[in-house]
Design goal:
The protein has about 280 residues and is mainly α. The chain contains 10 helices and no strands.
Length: about 280
């Protein structure tokens, strides 16, 4: 009895095509298009945003309207750029011969999703510095990230030590007490805390000495300034949280649009888009 050895060519009898399941060139093209359109729309959005805000009272849009408009515009950017990038990734991919229709549909969807993920990573690398500056500006009030620097506390200390009589008896002592208060407030609020009772009492004494106010009024001024710092910190925290939520929503919507557009591009590439829709 003679055993027969059959030698098969790759892809001949296994039913699997020899073409790779992922067209990386198409994915890279879609991702680059996605990033390029995102940059263009961001530049347009910056110009549009600067044109609707104004430093004059009663002019321009309100802060709430600006925040909501910014969030909606981020979603529009994600929808447009991701849809076009996903369509490019699906339309330029290689054609799969002998693959089931459902598998082709899945691969097109995966092409769009991978193109979106590639664009997101590439965009994060390219926009790392601008995004960091944007978030830093949004939280420049008195957040934990900026509290390590003395700059944001300068204004609060100026308000704290403001006197009804601008002329100070000793300029050197005034500068020393001002710097001491800046360091005290900065170290106290660096980790999201507040003034300790001993530091609060000492700050009130310095305010009373510098301004000539009564001890009760000095205590009230210290409490008002501390309350203002907390209010500004909380407002910055809420603004940063809202921006993070809008970014998350835009990324998720972008992933969906890219995947859906890739299936359309792949269907048009194979001439099966109308058949898929009817089915």
């Amino acid at each position: 009895m003679i055993d027969t050895v059959v030698v098969t060519q790759p892809g001949a009898d296994t039913g699997e095509p020899s073409v790779a399941g992922v067209s990386w060139a198409a994915v890279a093209a879609g991702a680059i298009v996605n990033c390029a359109l995102t940059l263009v729309l961001i530049a347009f959005g910056i110009g549009l945003g600067l044109s609707v805000v104004s430093p004059w009272a009663g002019s321009g849009v309100s802060a709430t309207t600006f925040k909501i408009g910014t969030g909606l515009y981020l979603i529009v950017i994600a929808m447009l750029s991701s849809s076009i990038g996903g369509y490019i990734a699906g339309r330029l991919r290689s054609r799969w011969i002998g693959v089931h229709t459902d598998e082709v549909y899945f691969r097109d969807t995966a092409h769009g999703f991978v193109a979106w993920a590639f664009a997101a990573v590439l965009g994060a690398i390219l926009l790392a510095s601008p995004v960091s500056g944007l978030l830093g500006g949004a939280t420049s009030g008195a957040t934990q990230a900026t509290a390590s620097r003395s700059g944001p506390m300068e204004g609060y200390v100026d308000t704290l030590l403001r006197s009804d009589t601008p002329a100070a008896p000793n300029a050197d002592n005034s500068r020393d007490s001002h710097g001491e208060m800046v360091r005290l407030f900065t170290s106290s609020f660096r980790s999201g805390g507040e003034l300790k009772p001993a530091d609060r009492a000492y700050a009130a004494k310095v305010v009373a000495t510098r301004t000539g106010m009564s001890q009760a009024d000095a205590d009230k001024r210290v409490n008002d300034v501390v309350t203002q710092i907390k209010a500004d910190t909380d407002a910055a925290r809420k603004a940063t949280a809202q921006l993070a939520f809008w970014l998350t929503a835009s990324l998720l919507i972008g992933a969906f649009c890219s995947s859906l557009a890739a299936t359309e591009g792949g269907g048009l590439r194979d001439g099966t888009w109308g058949k898929r829709t009817r089915r």
